[in-house]
Specification:
By secondary structure, the chain is an alpha/beta fold. The protein contains seven helices and seven strands, in the order βαββαβαβααβαβα. Strands 1, 2, 3, 4, 5, 6 and 7 form a seven-stranded parallel β-sheet that branches. α3 links the parallel β4 and β5. Its cofactor is FMN.
Amino acid sequence: DIKKPILALAPMEDVTDFVFRELISDIAKPDVLFTEFTNVDGLFSNGKDQVIKRLKFSSNQHPIVAQIWGSTPKNYFESAKLIYDMGFDGIDINMGCPVRAVIKQRSGAALIKYKELAKEIIKAAKEGAGKLPVSVKTRIGLNKIETNEWVSFLLNQNIDVLTIHGRTAKDKSKVPANWDEIKKAV
């Protein structure tokens, strides 16, 4: 229900924490804010007390979307229920992180390669999310451009929003964004 164009504070690791979002909300609030990406597997581990701090927000930060990542569908379901109960306005699944440690866990951009797992994750998140919209942030490919196949696959999962980072995971952010591939996705 946000007017277009949508101005968003993108999810940025080690940047969009509670304090940063609060500051931005006071100075020049965008239409929607995203948390740093939060590991769903960590939310249900011995380290949960540290991980859940990433999901702290104030009423000043609405609308706010929790960005999550991981590789266990059950934990996506449980995390989505938790995020709904916490009062978030949406859930965003990170399927675009190019960091090697994340990819090794079959998470982030690795899910481009593991479509069945990606499908299970989206389904689990949607089932746990209640009425919250579920979106996906991704890239145009893992090691090569796969826009048509990957974006078509994601859109067939009936997600509410798709955000495209116009580079492959291999490219990270070292090359200019490929706007032609973004145009294809649109």
